[in-house]
Model the fold of this input.
Amino acid sequence: MSAIDELIRPDVYPRTSTYDPNWLLKLDMGPNPLWLLEDLSHDLDLRPGMRVLDLGSGNGATSVFLAREFGVEVVAADWWVDAETATAVFEAAEVEDRVTAVHAEAHQLPFDRDSFDVIVSIDAWEYFGTADSYLPYLLRFLKPGGQIGVATPALTREVRDLGGIPAHIKELVGWEALAWHTPEWLRFQWETTEMVTVTAARLQPDGWRDWLLWARARERENAATIATLEQDRGEFLSFVIMAARKLGTVEQ
Done:
């Protein structure tokens, strides 16, 4: 079985397995975003017609998935990818009537208060979301009773408890790993705001293995990542799945 074939895993990710892995690899900006989103979706109530902010949407694969799989209306916001590039992806996937691309920085979002039923962020939260002030800022754009869901790289133990970033991880990502936290750390941070009820805070047991399978599909470009994951074998590296509801009355 080739590395590409191993990306089709209907027993684990049935929805993602209906998508051409070559299409997804062309949009690659990190770990497999659809595997992360499909796992996260089990902890969210996504219904047709909901307005969803896909924050840190990258080249748009997650926004296509949300529109196709759940019938939601998506605003795809990203700072690194311009709106024209993302729109071309949505047009090619024939979801441009349900997905709108917005070029926006995460701390300067151009939306009205209470604009969204759901906010999701896949493999992007680590770049802006872990500051103590960020969740309260973001929640202003979420309706009362609305849902927020995040899938982000995680460590099985906090850097502070380890006494520093493990050497093999530091060699790969440097200081970036300071923003990789445990589910317990994120749960405490979110709950301490007293603005949400946390409904999921869990570590993916095989998150490192998923990441490794994906990296091997582009072995030449991902040699350093592969070496780090093979050395780690889940001792420190994984992904955390977080979900919560904003306090307030859910509109019917």
The first helix runs from residue 21 to 26. The beta strands are 51-55, 73-78, 99-103, 116-122, 142-155, 196-203, 237-246.
